[in-house]
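hey so i finally got around to running both of the ones u sent me last week. sorry it took forever, my laptop kept dying halfway thru and i had to restart like 3 times lol. anyway pasting them below in the order u listed, first the sequence line then the structure token line for each. didnt double check formatting much so if smth looks off just lmk and ill redo it

first one:
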Amino acid sequence: MIGWRGPEPMKGMAMPRTHSISWNLKHLNKALERALMRALADGDVPYSQAGVLSFLAGRAGEPTSQRQIEEYFGVSNPAVSGLVKRLHSKGFVAVGTDPADQRRRAVQITAAGLTAMETARRSIDAVDEQVLDGFTAAESAEFQRLIAKARHNLSAAAVSPLPASDSPASQRIEVNA
């Protein structure tokens, strides 16, 4: 059974409603993706494209290669090529040759791209507010700090051994019915 670790309950007994941290985060991510898709459905920029526009805007007009986009988002060359092609067809990015390296395609956000990104950002911010609804300012800051720490831990996990079975990573979170 997915999300459950431990012995199966005896016949006729209800299974405890506990799930792993991974299960909870996976389902939180799915719910977040659905909310973001709904929030951005009526706009010009889907969530994946908004991320690329935000990344390019943060580079302050510096020519950016498709490889840099691939590495930043951890996606394949064909995925980035498709994103850049769609953004270019909408006029949100300009694509040319990098003056410093003629072999490299350079991608830059346009003024229209900045406007589209800002519109998408407002929708994304509204979803973020929905996620944090009912959190105090301190809880919100702590939640964001813990998410960043967990992301760091997983980045480091690529070179670290798996946690022992008695580590905090193996603990379960009770889910209120």
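and the second one:
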Amino acid sequence: MSFKNKQFMFIAFCNHLSLPKSTILCFLYYIVSFPFCHCRLSAEEVMQWSQSLEKLLASQRGQGVFREFLKSEFSEENMEFWLACEEYKKTKSDHLHGKAERIYEEFVQSNAVKQINIDYRTRETTAKKAQDPTLTSFDEAQKTVYVLMERDSYPRFLKSKAYLSLLNQLQANTLK
């Protein structure tokens, strides 16, 4: 049976169990992203995600599962902006201007397609810093978005059927 057929069977099985779409998306992300990974996701790793948003974001797989949850809530722009800022901090100085412009246009400006939820003062300060960019140009806005995720999305993620189902499934597999 092909990998694609297994995915379709998995979706049908999840629908039969009446699992929410966010749970299915999280499981599918895991299956598609790590189908042949020797180091499978463990219940221990998933439990560590509940210790802090920092620990969740430190895990590549945690980022992916959290991002799928945010997509189900229509707020993935926060995670995308945070990741773009992390990548931006690694930028060589001769590429700063172009990357700063892209991040500003995509996430910060008032009519951005993926506009992040930041206050007017932070938006204006970030706009000025993006015009003459440094590696710290987006730090204030990134911190604001991080706090928003930490206080709002992250607690809902930990209580979500997606996270709890994933954790329960992995714990059940550990007991086998």
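quick thing i noticed on the 2nd:
Confidence is low (pLDDT under 50) at residues 32-38.
anyway thats it, ttyl
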